[in-house]
Design goal:
Layout: E1 3-8, H1 16-31, E2 35-40, H2 55-58, H3 67-76, E3 79-85, H4 93-108, E4 117-124, H5 129-142, E5 155-157, H6 168-188
Parallel strand pairs: 1-2, 1-3, 3-4, 4-5
């Protein structure tokens, strides 16, 4: 069974970023029949990387917080969606802490994300979406992952909770993106 996770990097539960990820995961699960899981960073503690490099020796991060559980789900997943709202022109500190540490530990374990499929989703009130999209995209590219396209960049607009659901083009784009993730995973696994 194909397993896709959507990691919501917003500190707001059920905010616009989460609603956008839910739309993507619904397209993957309801329309494509794959297993999905929504992972919220809200309420979780993900400390920033302290660059100690001990993971190079042990393959584990020495920081004791919620990172390990999420990282293991990332390793298990066939597809990974990373999502963030724009905070002061960039991705949230929560998701940046996650991907910084995940990148180090992945490297220590022999590049565990290599050839997985995934990509970023971004929600903006007005601006900063392209920079934030690039921040998240660089993680996928650095890790040797495969990022499918969609009908536009995986960006939608909204400020107050629920406003993102009014961005019809953004919703179509992320639904199409999720279906492309499934299509590509099936091709890679020779399931089609």
């Amino acid at each position: 069974m194909i397993y896709i996770i959507g990691i919501v990097g917003s500190p707001r539960v059920e905010g616009n970023t989460e609603k956008l990820v839910v739309e993507a995961l619904k397209a993957a699960s309801e329309e494509e029949g794959v297993q999905t899981e929504l992972i919220r960073l809200a309420g979780k503690e993900i400390k920033p990387c302290d660059a100690c490099l001990s993971c190079r020796k042990t393959g584990e991060c020495h920081i004791n917080d919620d990172f390990q559980e999420i990282f293991e789900k990332m390793v298990k997943a066939d597809g990974i969606i990373l999502a963030s709202p724009v905070y002061f022109g960039s991705a949230t500190p929560q998701i940046m802490a996650l991907i910084d540490r995940a990148g180090f530990v992945s490297g220590a374990r022999g590049r565990v994300f290599e050839n997985k499929v995934g990509g970023p989703l971004v929600v903006a009130r007005r601006a900063g979406q392209n920079f934030t999209f690039a921040q998240l995209l660089f993680f996928f590219l650095h890790q040797g992952m495969i990022v499918p396209g969609s009908t536009y960049w995986n960006i939608a607009f909204g400020r107050e909770k629920g406003e993102v659901l009014g961005d019809q083009e953004g919703l179509r784009t992320v639904r199409n993106f999720a279906k492309k993730i499934v299509w590509l995973i099936k091709k890679i696994k020779n399931l089609e």
